[in-house]
Amino acid sequence: MYSTTDFRKGLKIEIDGTPYEIVDFQHFKPGKGGAMVRTKLRNILNGRVIDNTFRSGEKVDRPNLESRDMQFLYHDGQDLAFMDMTTYEQLSMPEDVTDGKSAFLKDGQECRVLLYNEKPIDIEIPASLILEVTATEPGAKGDTVSNVTKPATLETGIVVQVPIFVNTGDRIKVDTRTKEYLGRE
Predict the structure, then answer these.
(1) Max CA pair span of the chain
(2) What is the pTM of this model?
């Protein structure tokens, strides 16, 4: 169990059987009575943010969260198939719970899967990945104006904006949070 004195940004707690992540918190003391802790909590299962106030010293439960190293196997319609790297068990999770991160997954790629009560709820991928450009239009000669970009399709199927000098077959570094081009490799 956690006490309100343990609260910090990013701490995961459980309230009424639902896991939350603390987005923001503030200790305050009203004119009379005991101290309180005002929090903003993000529901880990659906992403909604709520406000909640706790009395100082109040206890909350720890959620049954576990993070495991897994290997992404393949897309199965609207589901993603993963294999546990230690037990070789396979499990699947809906693609829509990954918040768009699944677009960066390649077959055989290793990542961390977040489980709540043995049910996969999210994936963690690196902040940047090196991917190959599979399709893009060639840059026009003489088009040297700075910051000119064009769309490029990467090996995972995602489309990002790249500078005009990037060609098909190039390997580029992409920020997985913003889907921005970071450079050539």
Answers:
(1) 73
(2) 0.70
